[in-house]
Design goal:
There is one protein chain. By secondary structure, this protein is mainly beta. The chain is built from 5 helices and 34 strands. The protein has a domain of 145 residues. A hairpin with a 3-residue loop joins strand 4 and strand 5.
Length: 605
C-alpha cells in the first residue's frame, strides 16, 4: 500500500517579450495538490491494483496592472494592463481498479474501470478595462491615429459545473503460438456533462438564432435547448487490435502492427463561452474615421471621448455599438475521435537491432467555432448581423464538431544497447512525417466551415527529425556521452490580411523556417555532450559520480515565434507580400538556450 501527497505551487511573471511590454504581463498563480492512495494485491494467478485520487487545482493568472486599458498596435507593440484576470478551481475525485489474470494458459486477461467526478468553478474577468486595437489598413482608411476596435466586459459572475467520466476496458494478450501474439481489446468511455448538457438557452438568444437563415452547416434549432436536448454520447466504443509475429522464433525478425480507435473529450474551456458570455458579456465596438461600414460590419466614427471605460459605456447606451457576441453549442456534437494504424518490422543486424514502422492517424470531430451569420454566398463579406441587433447581439458564433486532422509518418530506429563488456552504445531515430488539419483551432472564422479551409500543414509540423544518442567508455574510468537533435524546422502560420484584418477575410499560408544549421541542411540543431567519471567509495559498491555537460555545444540559435501577418498588398507575379512588415522568416525568440556548461555531482548507494 502506498499513500502520497504532492504540492505544486507557482508564481511566474509571464506573457511578455517580443512586442508585448512588461506592463502587459500577468502573474501565473498556480497551486496543485494531489493525494494518492494505491493498493496492489497479488494472488496466485492474478494481480489487482486499486487507486484512489483527489486533485485540487487552482489556476489564477492575474494581471499586473488590472486598472490600465490595453493598447494593441497590431504587429508593433502591446502595452497597458493585461485585458483579463481569471480564476479556475477544479476538484477531481477518481477511483480506478485494474486486474490482470494469468490463470488460463497462453492468455493474459486485463480489465479495468475508472470513475472520475470533476467539480469546476470558473470566474473569468475579461476586459474589465477596455482593450483598444489599432490597425494599418489603407484600403479601409485605418491608421494608427485612432483605434479600429475596442472590447469591454459588461458583466461579472461565476460558473459552477460538474462532470462524471466513466471508463471501462477489457483486453487479452494471447500467445497463439511461440511465434505469434495477438492483443485484442475494447474500451468504452462515457461522460455525463460533456457539453454543458443542462444549459437552457435564454429567450432572446433563442429568438436571435431563429432570426438567422438555415444553411447547410447551421440549423438554429440544433443550437437551442431547454435543458433536455443534449443527451450524453454513449457510443464511445473503441476496439483495438495488435499483433507481433516472430518469423524464425528467435527474435531476429519480428513483424508487428496494430489498429485501434481512441476517443478524447472536449476541454471545459471549449464550450464554456456559451454560458460565460451570457453572464459575462463582452461588448464589441468598431470604429472608423467616417463611421461607414467596414467589411460588411457597422462602425461608428471615432471620438476621443471613447478612450475610457465610461466613454464606451455611454456609447453602448446610445447606439448599436458595444453589443456582445452570441455563443451557442451544437446540441448533438460528438466527442473527438482518432483512428490509428501502424505496421512495422524489427530486424537484428549483427550487434544492432533496426526497426522500420509506418503510422497513420486520422482525427475527426474536433470542436471549433464558426460564424452563423455568413452572407449567403459565403464570400466577399463576413457576416449579415442585422437580424441579431434587435435582440441585443453583435454577431453569432456557433460550435461545430468539424475539425479534422491526419498524420502520416515513417519511423526508423537503429539501436546498439550499451554493455559493460563492449564499452559503447548507440541509438539513432529518424522520423519522416506530415501532419495536416482543416479549419483553424478553437475558432475557424476565416472560411464558411473548417472544410472550406482545405488541408494545410498543422502548426508544428516537422517533416524530418533525427535524434542521435550514445556513450562510450574512455581510459581512466571516464565515460563520454551525447544527445543530439536535428530537425528540418516546424511549420508556422503566416496570415494574409490583405482583404482586411477582421475575422472572416484572412487567408493562411504554412511556411517553414530557413535552414541555417549544418550548411542549410537543418533548421534545428542541438548538440549536448557529457564527460563523466565514477569513483568507488571505500571499496564498497557505493559510487560517487562527477560530470560536466556542454549543452548546445555549437551555440546553435533555434528560433521560434515565426507566426506573423501582412495586410497591404500581394505581388500577383510571385504571390509574396509587398508589405514591409512581411515576416523575415526569422523568429522572435529561441527554443534553446545559448551554449552553457553544467557541472553535476551524484552519489549512488
Amino acid at each position: 500500500m502506498d499513500l502520497s501527497f504532492s504540492r505544486r505551487q507557482e508564481t511566474d511573471i509571464q506573457n511578455f517579450g517580443g512586442n508585448v511590454s512588461y506592463e502587459n504581463a500577468e502573474n501565473k498563480i498556480n497551486v496543485v495538490d494531489t493525494y494518492l492512495y494505491k493498493w496492489t494485491y497479488t494472488g496466485s494467478n492474478f494481480i489487482n491494483e486499486f487507486n484512489a485520487n483527489y486533485l485540487s487545482y487552482t489556476f489564477n493568472p492575474t494581471s499586473l496592472n488590472p486598472d490600465l486599458p490595453t493598447y494593441d498596435y497590431d504587429g508593433v507593440i502591446i502595452f497597458g494592463g493585461k485585458d483579463s484576470t481569471r480564476r479556475e478551481v477544479q476538484q477531481g475525485y477518481t477511483l480506478r481498479d485494474d486486474v490482470t489474470y494469468t490463470g488460463l494458459q497462453n492468455h493474459s486477461f486485463k480489465a479495468g474501470a475508472r470513475v472520475e467526478i470533476t467539480d469546476i468553478e470558473f470566474d473569468n474577468q475579461s476586459f474589465i478595462q477596455p482593450r483598444y486595437t489599432y490597425r494599418r489598413e489603407p484600403q479601409n482608411g485605418l491608421t494608427f491615429a485612432s483605434p479600429a476596435e475596442a472590447r469591454l466586459g459588461l458583466g461579472s459572475g461565476k460558473i459552477l459545473a460538474s462532470n462524471t467520466q466513466i471508463g471501462l476496458y477489457v483486453q487479452d494478450d494471447w500467445d497463439v503460438t511461440s511465434k505469434l501474439q495477438l492483443n485484442v481489446g475494447v474500451r468504452w468511455d462515457y461522460e455525463t456533462n460533456g457539453f454543458n448538457n443542462e444549459y437552457r438557452t435564454p429567450a432572446n438568444a433563442a429568438a436571435a438564432l431563429r432570426a438567422l437563415p438555415t444553411t447547410s452547416y447551421f440549423d438554429p434549432e440544433n443550437y437551442i435547448t431547454d435543458g433536455s436536448n443534449r443527451s450524453p454520447f454513449a457510443g464511445a466504443i473503441a476496439p483495438r487490435f495488435g499483433f507481433s509475429y516472430d518469423l524464425k522464433d528467435d527474435q531476429t525478425t519480428v513483424i508487428f502492427g496494430g489498429i485501434g480507435r481512441y476517443y478524447d473529450r472536449n476541454n471545459f474551456n471549449n464550450t464554456v463561452d456559451e454560458l460565460s458570455r451570457t453572464i459575462n458579456p463582452i461588448g464589441v465596438f468598431r470604429f472608423s474615421p467616417n463611421g461607414a461600414p467596414r467589411e460588411g460590419l457597422p462602425t461608428v466614427q471615432w471620438n476621443p471621448a471613447y478612450m475610457t471605460r465610461d466613454g464606451l459605456l455611454q456609447l453602448a447606451a446610445t447606439s448599436t455599438q458595444g453589443l456582445p457576441e452570441l455563443f451557442a453549442v451544437k446540441n448533438d456534437a460528438r466527442p473527438p475521435v482518432n483512428d490509428q494504424a501502424s505496421i512495422g518490422i524489427r530486424q537484428k543486424v549483427g550487434i544492432f537491432q533496426a526497426a522500420l514502422t509506418a503510422s497513420y492517424i486520422r482525427g475527426r470531430n474536433g470542436y471549433t467555432n464558426i460564424f452563423a451569420t455568413r452572407t449567403l454566398d459565403g464570400l466577399g463579406g463576413c457576416c449579415n448581423t442585422a437580424p441579431l441587433q434587435p435582440f441585443g447581439y453583435a454577431n453569432a458564433i456557433v460550435g461545430l464538431d468539424g475539425l479534422d486532422t491526419r498524420y502520416k509518418a515513417i519511423y526508423f530506429t537503429l539501436d546498439k544497447n550499451y554493455t559493460k563488456s563492449s564499452g559503447w552504445g548507440l541509438n539513432v531515430a529518424y522520423t519522416f512525417s506530415k501532419g495536416e488539419q482543416n479549419g483553424g483551432d478553437l475558432f475557424s472564422l476565416d472560411a464558411i466551415t473548417p472544410d472550406a479551409y482545405g488541408w494545410r500543414p498543422r502548426a508544428g509540423d516537422e517533416r524530418h527529425r533525427v535524434v542521435i544518442s550514445g556513450m562510450v567508455d574512455l581510459p581512466l574510468g571516464f565515460q563520454f556521452s551525447m544527445l543530439n537533435t536535428l530537425g528540418s524546422g516546424q511549420a508556422f502560420q503566416v496570415t494574409d490580411a490583405t482583404n482586411g484584418a477582421d475575422s472572416g477575410f484572412n487567408r493562411f499560408t504554412a511556411r517553414y523556417p530557413r535552414k541555417n544549421c549544418i550548411k542549410g541542411v537543418f533548421a534545428y540543431c542541438e548538440v549536448n555532450l557529457t564527460l563523466a567519471k565514477r569513483f568507488s567509495v571505500l571499496g564498497k559498491e557505493d559510487q560517487f559520480e562527477a560530470a560536466v555537460d556542454l549543452l548546445n555545444a555549437f551555440n546553435n540559435k533555434n528560433f521560434e515565434g515565426f507566426d506573423a501577418s501582412f495586410n497591404n498588398t500581394i505581388d500577383p507575379a510571385t504571390g509574396q507580400a509587398t508589405d514591409p512588415l512581411e515576416p523575415a522568416r526569422i523568429g522572435t525568440s529561441t527554443l534553446t538556450l545559448p551554449r552553457r556548461i553544467q557541472f553535476r555531482v551524484g552519489y549512488r548507494f
